[in-house]
Specification:
137 residues, alpha+beta, eight-stranded mixed β-sheet, 3 helices, binds zinc ion
């Protein structure tokens, strides 16, 4: 597994992007992820990327996170080679999953979240990149 990105929950995407821009970091890609009801922006840096997440509506899980905890780090994402096999392996090992099966995430990836109770309070996202993009990022 290797670091894919660090997810950060934000209330205002443009405002947050300008804050990162002041650090010399720029968004490479923005998109709406229907399954998670968020708009995301990816900001690459050496060895990884930030993923800023802004909820599309008040019922979005990220909106609930913001209401409870405010802006800040939301999750860590790790790249895996075969996400279906990885999810089955974790479930067989008794690891509590939020997603019982992989689903479509940003950039055409497949993703599955591990429950934070299994990882010391950190929300971990597994990501499988589309074929041929394995070394991106
Ligand atoms: Zn993510």
């Amino acid at each position: 597994m290797k670091l894919d990105h660090i997810g950060v929950a934000v209330k205002d995407l443009d405002k947050s992007l300008s804050a990162y821009q002041a650090l010399g970091l720029r968004a490479a890609h923005r998109e709406h992820v229907a399954g998670d009801r968020v708009e995301v922006a990816f900001i690459p840096f050496e060895g990884g990327r930030f993923e800023l997440l802004k909820p599309d509506d008040e019922e979005s899980p990220v909106a609930k996170f913001l209401q409870k905890r405010g802006e800040g780090m939301h999750h860590l994402a790790l790249t895996v080679g075969d996400i279906h096999a990885e999810v089955e392996r974790l479930k067989a090992g008794g690891v509590r999953m939020i997603d019982q099966a992989p689903r479509v995430g940003a950039e055409g990836t497949l993703v599955a979240f591990i429950h934070p109770s299994a990882t010391g309070g950190v929300l971990v996202e597994l990501v499988e990149r589309p074929q041929g993009e394995a070394d991106r990022g």
